[in-house]
Design goal:
Elements lengths: L7 E6 L5 H10 L3 E6 L2 E6 L1 H10 L7 E8 L3 H9 L12 E10 L6 H20 L10 E9 L2 E7 L21 H9 L8 E4 L6 H10 L21 H13 L8 E6 L2 H13 L7 E4 L13 E4 L7 H4 L2 H13 L5 E6 L4 H4 L6 E7 L2 E8 L9
Helix pairs in contact: 2-7, 3-4, 5-6
Length: about 375
């Protein structure tokens, strides 16, 4: 029988460069942050945290329950370190478990396949001794393990999320070079935008930035409409906890907020995809999506926001068009002098074509691509009487 614990340690990976954003989200949930490292936050929680972190965190890639850590410079040390963990208190006898991912950076052990097989064997040896059985049916619930080794420090954990948390459940259709939902949410968190302000994305693609902005403005929990691996762990997390947290998410939605969010793209098929994704997110008719180039971007509204992800030129044929495109972006920015503009790109010459130097510049890794998130701050709107 597995042993329930009063306190758990969790790990939440995120995009490199966005650790502070995720840390603030975790603190806002009332949880204690233990450590902030490159691309990862560790924090404490209880049984309720399995549900809360998965349902409410917008910028985490997944939630991992940390089961142990130790130093290992040889495969023997790796085996003994994993075997020393009290797996009989963690996994039920019929658990289906495997190492879904093993990574190693600057460590003596670097073969992912060897790490995976040794970790599995060590756990089986431990459970065989503790449960007194020779063969495990693995017919029960899934417990996908993740192992990371950094400078010979091994961290072992169990993935509670399943599919990455960027999969909110609304984006059934994607366009070319889609921006992940978690990165879009973080970009919005790095602006002072609030629910009542104007937001435009002139390169909306499949609509991710606009949809994430609307969900944030309406306080819609990002994971409320999807399932998670740990929901099946009834011996660990009660069904009532997930039911209660989903009800809390539903109760917290601000249904009377008036949105002013628009997305534009030169590809009508992308616009259609964005509209369908918005409908799947429960936002049908609440976001305006239209077909238009950035060269036509104008507005008679003051003090709005542009948050966008224009083409980077990752494909060779796109690179030749980038100078003209970014010149058009710069001209559009000039036409909206009272607006604040936020732009993410890996195009190194982008600033040559934009009207002024950015007020802020943050380096973010979008997968393996190094990007820059430029902030051009407009004047603050006058306070209403």
């Amino acid at each position: 029988m597995v042993r329930k614990m009063s306190e758990y340690e969790f790990l939440a990976p995120c995009h490199f460069g966005l650790e502070t954003v995720l840390k603030n989200e975790i603190l806002d949930l009332g949880l204690d942050v233990l450590e902030v490292s490159d691309g990862r936050i560790s924090f404490l929680g209880n049984e309720e945290t399995f549900a809360q972190a998965n349902i409410f965190l917008r910028t985490a890639e997944r939630i991992i329950w940390k089961t142990g850590s130790f130093r290992a410079e040889s495969f023997d040390e790796l085996f003994e370190g994993v075997k020393a963990i009290a797996w009989e208190d963690i996994l039920p006898p019929d658990a289906k478990f495997w190492v879904t991912k093993a990574s190693s950076v600057k460590s003596a052990l670097f073969s992912s396949s060897d790490i995976q097989s040794i970790v599995k064997k060590a756990i089986v040896d431990r459970l065989r001794e503790k449960f007194g059985i020779a063969w495990f049916p693995e017919s029960g619930n899934s417990y996908p393990l993740r192992v990371s080794i950094l400078k010979d420090m091994v961290t072992v954990g169990i993935d509670t999320s399943g599919d990455s948390l960027h999969k909110r459940g609304y984006r059934k259709l994607v366009g070319m070079a889609p921006l992940s939902e978690t990165l879009a949410a973080a970009m919005l968190d790095l602006t002072p935008m609030n629910a009542g302000r104007v937001l435009v994305d002139p390169f909306c693609g499949s609509g991710t930035i606009c949809i994430e902005a609307a969900m944030k403005a309406l306080n819609m929990a990002p994971g409320a409409k999807r399932s998670f691996t740990c929901e099946a762990w009834k011996e660990r997390v009660s069904e009532k906890i997930f039911k209660r947290e989903r009800e809390r998410a539903e109760y917290g939605v601000k249904r009377n907020v008036k949105l002013d969010i628009s997305g534009f793209d030169i590809d009508m098929e992308q616009v259609k995809i964005a509209r369908q994704n918005a409908a799947l997110a429960g936002l049908e008719g609440m976001i305006s999506f239209d077909c238009a180039p950035v060269a036509d971007l104008v507005s008679d509204k003051e003090y709005g926001f542009i948050v966008t992800n224009p083409p980077y030129g990752e494909r060779l044929e796109e690179k030749e068009a980038l100078p003209a495109l970014y010149k058009q972006i710069g001209e559009a920015f000039d036409r909206l002098p009272t607006w604040s503009k936020y732009l993410i790109t890996s195009y190194e010459d982008a600033l040559k074509y934009l009207p002024k130097a950015p007020d802020r510049n943050r380096k973010i890794y979008n997968g393996m691509i190094k990007t820059y998130y430029y902030s051009f701050l407009g004047p603050k709107p006058p306070k209403k009487a």
